[in-house]
Amino acid sequence: MSYDTVIFDLDGTLLDTLDDLTDGVNHALADFGYPLAGREEIRARLGYGSGYLIAHSVPGGYDDPNYQEVFDDYLAYYRAHSSVKTRPYAGIDELLEALSAHGVRRAIVSNKPDSATQELYQRWFASSVECAVGERPGIRRKPAPDSLLEVMRRPGAARERTVYVGDSEVDIETAAAAGVDCISCAWGFRTAEQLLQSGARVLVSDAEELAARLI
Questions:
Q1: Which domains does the chain have, with CATH numbers?
Q2: CA 46, CA 151: separation in Å to the nearest integer?
Q3: How much of the chain exceeds pLDDT 90, in percent?
Q4: For residue range 34-73, what is the model confidence (pLDDT) as tens digits?
């Protein structure tokens, strides 16, 4: 399939953010005297946005009396430390350069708060990806298709020539809701087995294999 628009998830797809996310959550939990979370616990909670992440990390969930304060603490700390350990996955920079050389439009749609999404976008991808959007008030987050469809409208991207690339069941559901193809990356926050169980139809194991699917 030949695509002229490729839209990427951010965490677990373009960037390995797991360690910085874990540090951010644990910083906020420690500030409120809550038990810390393990790296693999955080991995399993990723994909549904920062609100979900914090709600599943504090003892009382969304009803925890300190939920909003923990969330605010986490977000402030994370924004200031989001690129301490975070790096693009192997081959991603080269992939984006190749897509650009072939005239393929590139964008990012994330469930990360838009402020944090923009900071990572500016730090890592402002010169290689045309735009990025994160979670914002009034816009349903993934797996609702709202952000994906918004990004597609900007250049008038056709569904049949657009693909969403992600690393979780959320991304598979988002692509289906938007009516576009999905490619699932097995290097991110879900295993290949988990992705297949979630309905992945196209699975890639590294950036080189992804490039072969896109170019």
A1: 5-16+86-214 (3.40.50.1000), 18-80 (1.10.150)
A2: 22
A3: 96
A4: 999 999 999 999 999 999 999 999 999 999 999 999 999 9
Alpha-carbon torsion 124, 7, 205, 185, what sign?
A: positive
**Residues paired with 165 in a beta bridge:** 8, 183
Which of 153, 73, 65, 57 has the alpha carbon at shortest distance from 105? 153
Compute the distance between CA of residue 140 and CA of residue 191 in angstroms, rounded to an integer. Answer: 26
Residue 48: which region, alpha, beta or left (left: phi > 0; alpha: psi -120 to 50)?
alpha
Which two three-digit tokens encode residue 1? 């399939």
Dist CA 110 CA 155 (whole Å): 18
Residue entry with tokens 């993934």: 142
> pLDDT class for 126, splitting at 50, 70, 90?
very high
| pLDDT tens figures, 63-101 | 999 999 999 999 999 999 999 999 999 999 999 999 999
- Look up residue 110 and give its two tokens: 């994330």
How far apart are the C-alpha atoms of 172 and 164, rounded to whole Å? 8
One DSSP character per residue, 184-211 reads EETTSSS-HHHHHHTT-SSEESSHHHHH
Model confidence at 1: pLDDT above 70: no
- The DSSP bridge pattern shows strands 87-88 and 15-16 to be antiparallel
Six-digit token pair at 10?
Answer: 């951010």
Burial of 167 (0-12, 13-18, 19+ CB in 10 A): buried
How many Cβ atoms are within 10 Å of 155's Cβ, its own excluded? 14
